[in-house]
Records
---
Amino acid sequence: MEVWPGRLPPAPVDLHAACRDADGLLCLLTDRVDAALLEAAPRLRAVSVFAVGVDNVDLAAATARGIQVGHTPGVLTETTADLAFGLLLTTARRIGESERDVRSGRWPAWSPGAYLGEEVHGATLGIVGLGRIGSAVARRAAGFGMEVIHTNRSGGLPLEQLLERSDFVSLHVPLTAETRGLIGEAELGRMKPTAVLVNTARGELVDTDALVAALRHGPIAAAGLDVTDPEPLPPDHPLLAADNVVITPHIGSASRRTRELMADMAVDNLLAALRGERMPHLANPEVADRLTGN
Ligand code: DGY
């Protein structure tokens, strides 16, 4: 077993070198497992991703080579939904901005007009992607008396209508070729001037330049982001200069318990494939049909 010792992810050249003779790879969402890497790793038969999202892996190329790709669905659902709701509240009620002012000695005298935000109770929440995490966010919203509307693959509202009707929009779709750039200038333009965008899914779902412009000059009021494009943001990035955005460093699943469960799942996936069995949580099930000859 070879463990990457660095604090930062390996550069592609290092990852390629480490995988040259490997039978299995347990990787993070920051490791790009593309066709070139698979080409450079002829023995590889298992890629286990320590995440539910597998957008860092070229699934088609892995499937074509008969490589199982594992992921960690389910165990991070509630934890990620907690953070999405936390960002929604923090952004709506300007908790980040006002807390920063308190810390920096700019605590203003109480006044009727200071730090006015948006009401969460009774508001309309638009969930883009009512899958596991989106549904968990909807359950939290019910406790706040929110009206929940949604899009999903098999029904719900068209995205345009959801954007026009929602006070809060929370993104819960995987990053794919179809969803990359899902929220751009036109989509932001449909949102209410008081609306808040929450993204705990993947940064690339949103056009960052369009979001920066929308936060600066309208049409939207604020954003709560656990994921960004690029990630991490460079210190001089314009998003960091905006007061009406709250940004956390991709910590949606970061509770002690959830990360332990994710680690166990990732290891179980890897070991199963190395034993020649089907991974318990397989992201490319087509490959297992091939294993069993179906
Ligand atoms: C995932 O699992 O895809 C999250 O982004 C990290 O937990």
---
Amino acid sequence: MRIDRINVYTIQLPVKGGTYRMASDDVGALDSTLVQVVTNDGLTGWGETCPIGPVYQPHHALGARAAIAEIAPGLIGSEIASIRLLAKRMDERLNGHGYAKAAFDIAFLDLLGQRLGVPVSTLLGGALADRVPAYYSLIVGPPEETARIAADKVKAGYPRLQVKISGRNLEEDVATVHKVWEAVGYKARIAVDGNRGLTIAAAILLDRLCQAIPFVFEQPCNTIDEVATLKGRVTHPIYLDENTEDQNAVLRAISLGIADGFGFKVTRLGGLTKMTTVRDLCAIRSLPHSCDDAWGGDIIAAACVHLASTVEPRRLEGAWIAQEYIEGHFDAKNPILIENGHIAVPQLPGIGIKPEPGMFGEPVATYGS
Ligand code: 0XW
Ligand code: MG
């Protein structure tokens, strides 16, 4: 099975409700990039990468497409057999840019799964469950309203909530955390996500002012070094998200003991294959983590769910997919759906998503024949 052609498509994914608000940025529509890898024996594999705007991480949609333009010509004619060899080939074309390579990694696993007749979860080591928990992300908003949505989402079955804070005064952040806790109590696990926005001082004060509330503190400050200084000065467990820019950052955070868990993004870590390494490092140290991406449609959602199904359930902080914030699906027959706060793991061979023909329009780039 050799690669004959690579088509690159784009789709705009507008945010339901208008704005997704985080400390680091407000976004209104996300620009997703899809790669379609066509083989000489007529199989088609799909991958996707969709940064949540250009500010959240050092990634952006045009950057992904520029990186794909460097990589794609060198992949034409390659055998889809060894994922490692394909990764090596991509590294020989371009240094870094894992978030673009991730789209290819997903497409290669999709093809290999179809060829072998197994779902991608099997290629990642094997599923431990046939459905995985999701979590709901509450955007930065007024305390009362945030608490009301939190209570609704718990009623809808979500076992975990992420409360976004920062980018405003401390009083509102503290009030939001208290109101959400009063509204949901122990009915859901809570993460409080600063999205890099708090100073060290503000993180310490928020920790003290919410002392009795059980939550994990996600990416409170901008850098790994700032977050490291919080260790021993705050009482809430600390999770890293944005700072885990690659596998090495995860290894460093684990070995320095500065993270109690992680919010992982599949494309930021360079794809599903690279994620299996950090997943296993976390298993060695009993560290919890989520299986998310920053944004994206059903292909990214499926990738997150396949990966999440391979994580020991007691350490799985859920899969975050953008479904609650976007309209429609790529594959009407097999959409990735959150039901009762959980997501069924696709059982079809490959990634389990076949976008409707023509739904992305004409390719923005084509490589090969
Ligand atoms: C909740 N998310 C997974 C979606 C947005 O990309 C932000 C992100 C996070 O945890 O920071
Ligand atoms: Mg986060």
